[in-house]
Design a protein that fits this description.
It is a single chain. The chain is α+β, with helices and mostly antiparallel strands. It has a domain at about 10-155 and about 275-325. The chain has helices at about 45-55, 80-85, 100-115, 120-140, 165-180, 185-190, 210-230, 245-250, 260-270, 275-285, 290-300, 310-320, 375-380, 430-440, 445-455, 460-480, 480-485, 515, 560-575, 595-610, 665-670, 705-720, 725-745; strands spanning about 65-70, 75-80, 160, 205-210, 235-240, 350-360, 390-395, 400, 405-410, 420, 420-425, 495-500, 520-525, 545-550, 635-640, 675-680. α1 (about 45-55) runs antiparallel to α3 (about 100-115).
């Protein structure tokens, strides 16, 4: 892993290593990795912990509207009264204790922390706090500026139902028309343009998996390869989970959908850890830059939304990924607004990005009578087969919402408080950096998920046997229901956001549980916790996606569970899923024998011991079978007959499938093709990189050198080019199928 060039202050102190504060570096940002490297010291700092404590404070009171800086050299007085008086009546003037006042309350604790730090650091820390006070006050003033935030003059409403919004409908027409008129699809599949009719062009959706920076960079390479072979120009959608959403966030903002520009941005920004205290300190002391850094979290607090660790994480992540440089003059404020990405998909210019997150619904936790599975199932009319489930949230430049809740809010209004379908107060659009934190917050997993992950990755031995034995005994003593409740406990709170269906009258088409409607906030986390490949947005009755291309940048590559979950969701939605789209659990990479696993574990132990002793680290020599020997290849295509459709209840999907047309609907006749492309080594192209074993590709790694970026981008691009012929054949087969169906329909009297 690349190290920050700056020296960590803790290296100069006598603090015992175990007493050094820790923050975020021990969490996985994407898929887990078996051998996480030691956390960088630059991600550990007294000030970060203090800042986190300051931000997470739950105290609330009405404050004065005049804030005075304590800077002895500049007694700047910032008055907000005049601005507040001019603000729209819809902007709330009273608020909980603001961040500026909270600093004063926490000052004693801060002094207790900094007295342990070298004197040279104290003045810098005090400067940071004073700068924080001034900047936070200015941000609160700007929040009422209708010129800066014209959306403050608008009155958003919740859109209900299962249809697509009008903006997305218009986009689809424009995108397919562009694909047809530019002859992009004809060129891709190798036929004359005169043979391709617009209505026969298949809708192609690309699903990119999570996996931290590795997924972000590999997705860049795969899609650059897709652009090179002509596939990207034929795609209508790109959906992302976790690290892939970080790709989307930069590709559609700072990079302006330019791969060369994006890779240059990576080279400039990824060599420093997002939680580097040196970088955070520098940002806080740089006029203009500090405002962009704090804007999202201050605005969220000002809107009376609880601040969680995910928001602090998103603040630092956003600075690393969305700042084009350390010069505030180079930064475009629109890069921090998801709704601003609309300009890059206008007139179907590029595929529509779909960002994803999930919320964990556990209504039994809201009930005084406790856990009653049968009663809950009866109340929900058999719509669930478990006592808790995941709701997939979709974020596009147009709107944010959830199909299962049948409710959507304009993207520019997400983060505002709603009641009965209308806003109770207006605030600026939520910062994209905070959203990227939500999309990549896999560390918010439940205890049960953490335990399952631990069992999967820890090597066999006495410790694993003892823990499993103790856990099994514990489960028997508690009973099934109590064990389920404990397993659903979160150690780290999900990001809270206003519930846009709060007190919304119950929809007619789908009966949403009352417990959800009565919640003021909805917690959202990384969608990879449910499925690390975002199939769900393309298994919707609202979108007739014909070809799903799944880019799996997970480590290890283990697709059986992802496909099983997707097939189950497709059946629930009543949409087709290829009957052959299934993986045996033994088809994965790596898939080592006990002897191979033992040999590799021994090598890792020797390397760790050498590192601890300051000795040269011996090179790693993989001892394993090839992916192909385990049944995996660079591309798998599934286009067999679809499973018999469990056609949805017409009352539920009445807007999409009218009852009288249910049997003859386009959905019932649709044949879906699913393509799976795992991130595997390609010895013919570059024998020196295997994402499963190359240390820079660890999910835990949040620093990359330009050389490491180039190597991973080039590998993913080469894998895409290697699969070009099979991809063209799959898309051509789907086109021929649609063409045949159209011709058969036109022949009928």
């Amino acid at each position: 892993m690349s190290q920050d060039k700056n020296t960590d202050k803790h290296d100069k102190l006598d603090l015992p290593k175990e007493e050094r504060p820790s923050f975020l570096s021990n969490f996985s940002f994407g898929s887990s990795h078996k051998h996480p490297p030691a956390p960088d010291d630059d991600a550990h700092t007294h000030a970060t912990n203090w800042f986190a404590k300051l931000t997470f404070s739950k105290s609330a009171k009405i404050t004065t509207e005049t804030v005075k800086s304590t800077d002895s050299t500049d007694s700047t007085v910032v008055t907000t009264t005049a601005v507040a008086a001019e603000a729209s009546a819809t902007v709330v003037e009273s608020r909980p204790q603001n961040l500026v006042d909270k600093i004063a309350d926490e000052w004693h604790d801060f002094e207790e922390v900094i007295k342990h730090v070298s004197p040279s650091a104290i003045s810098e820390d005090i400067d940071i706090v004073q700068e924080f006070r001034k900047v936070a006050a200015q941000i609160e003033v700007d929040m009422c500026d209708k010129i800066r935030y014209p959306d403050l003059t608008r009155s958003p409403e919740i859109r209900r139902g299962l249809t697509l919004c009008q903006q997305e409908e218009n986009f689809i027409k424009a995108r397919i028309n562009r694909i047809a008129t530019t002859h992009a699809f004809a060129k891709f599949i190798g036929v004359h343009p005169s043979e391709v009719r617009e209505e026969d062009i298949p809708t192609i959706g690309i699903s990119a998996s999570g996996g931290g920076y590795r997924a972000m960079i590999a997705t860049t390479g795969s899609l650059r390869g897709a652009k090179k072979i002509g596939l990207l120009d034929c795609a209508t959608y790109i959906a992302g989970v976790s690290g892939a959403t970080w790709f989307l966030g930069q590709y559609y903002s700072v990079a302006d959908c330019d791969f060369d520009k994006l890779i240059k941005h990576f080279n400039n920004r990824l060599q420093v850890h997002p939680a580097s205290i040196q970088e955070v300190s520098k940002i806080m002391l740089t006029e203009g830059l500090n405002k962009y850094f704090l804007e999202g979290i201050v605005q969220k607090h000002r809107a009376k939304i609880p601040i969680t660790p995910v928001d602090v994480y998103g603040t630092m992540l956003g600075a690393r990924l969305l700042f084009v440089s350390d010069d505030p003059k180079d930064i475009d404020p629109l890069d921090f607004r998801l709704s601003a990405q609309e300009k890059l998909v206008r007139d179907g210019l590029n595929p529509l990005p779909i960002y994803t997150a999930v919320r964990h619904e556990m209504i039994w936790k809201s009930r005084e009578e406790g856990l009653d599975v049968q009663k809950i199932s009866e109340e929900l009319h058999g719509k669930i087969d478990t006592i808790d489930w995941w709701n997939w949230m979709e974020f596009t430049p147009y709107e944010v919402g959830c199909e299962e809740l049948e409710a959507f809010t304009p993207t520019w209004a997400f983060g505002n408080h709603f009641e009965n379908g209308k806003t109770t107060e207006i605030h600026p659009e939520q910062n994209l950096g905070l959203l990227l934190g939500i999309f990549g917050s896999v560390f918010c997993a439940t205890l049960g998920e953490m335990y399952d992950t631990w069992k999967y990755y820890v090597k066999d031995g006495w410790l694993k046997t003892m823990v499993e034995s103790t856990t099994n005994t514990f489960k028997k003593g508690l009973g099934q229901l109590k064990v389920h409740e404990l397993a659903a406990t979160y150690l780290i709170h999900a990001s809270d956001n206003p519930n846009f269906i709060y007190h919304l009258p119950e929809p007619v088409a789908l009966k949403v549980p009352k417990e959800i409607i009565d919640k003021k906030h909805l917690g959202m986390v990384d969608a990879g916790i449910d499925n690390n490949i975002p199939f769900n947005p393309f298994l919707s009755p609202r979108r007739h996606v014909d070809v799903i291309i799944a880019l799996d940048n997970s480590v290890p590559c283990d697709p059986s569970d992802y496909f099983a979950r997707a097939a189950k969701y497709a059946q629930k939605q009543g949409v087709p899923w290829p009957s052959d789209a299934v993986f045996d659990p033994n088809v994965k990479y790596p898939n080592m024998t006990p002897d191979e696993k033992k040999a590799e574990d021994l090598q890792w132990e020797e390397r760790s011991k050498a590192k601890e002793n300051g000795e040269p680290i011996p090179p790693f020599k993989p001892v394993r079978s090839t992916p192909q020997a385990n049944g995996l290849d660079h591309i798998h295509i599934f286009d067999g007959p679809s499973n018999p459709l469990s056609l949805p209840d017409p009352d539920k999907h009445i807007e999409v499938l009218p009852k009288q047309n249910l049997e003859t609907s386009p959905l019932a006749a649709q044949h879906k093709t699913v393509v799976y492309m795992p991130l595997l080594p390609n010895p013919e192209f570059d024998p020196t990189i295997d994402p499963t074993y190359t240390e820079s590709c660890s999910t835990w790694n949040l620093t990359y050198t330009p050389e490491e970026i180039a190597q991973l981008v080039n590998l993913a691009e080469a894998n895409m080019e290697k699969a070009a012929d099979k991809l063209k054949q799959a898309c051509k087969a789907q086109w021929e199928r649609k063409k045949k169906l159209r011709e058969e329909r036109t022949k009928k009297p």
